[in-house]
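User: Fold this, then the next.

Assistant: Folding the first:
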Amino acid sequence: VQLVESGGGLVQPGGSLRLSCVTSGFSFSTYPMRWYRQAPGSERELVASISSTGSITNYGDSVKGRFTISRDNAKSTVFLQMNSLKVEDTAVYYCNTFIRSDYWGKGTLVTVSS
């Protein structure tokens, strides 16, 4: 199982970024996917989740209305569209799935700063 995140970077407050997580080594369309984030000195936080078909999504309270999770099962990829970014969204963002145990990517750094 491999999860590879990309799309992070430096953005000003109010800006947007789109994160991608390309996966391999498992039947992607069968499993729910999640995005987590971890800010310096903080616990890892669940940002968003999506069901295997994409029909059900859930969001953390801090990102509701600003972030959108989606997936392309044909490309074994999950996305996180982040709009109206705030300084407090600065963190390393991780892709995750659970297949008898947790699998994580190495993360992509998002920095929101003026």
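Now the next one, as you asked:
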Amino acid sequence: QVQLVESGGGLVQPGGSLRLSCAASGFTFSSYAMSWVRQAPGKGLEWVSDINSGGGSTYYADSVKGRFTISRDNAKNTPYLQMNNLKPEDTAVYYCNVRTYWGQGTQVTVSS
């Protein structure tokens, strides 16, 4: 069965960085585009970034463009989200997504 397990979240000060990972299993990882989606407290889901199956095409929400970088290692079945220059408004639970499958999420809190 498909499993997605996010990690790498935590508490960071504004301007700091974090790198999220998502251990994927149960499907042919290298065949699928992957997404990162977040949910801020009291708000709905917000798409953050996509990467195609080969890693050569990436897409970002305007709110994170220039600060976040999505990547993937198909040998390790893992997508990543490098988050730099974090802002308090980036505080959210971050989810890894493929098709209709979701991980449990990892909490990112940006606060001084």
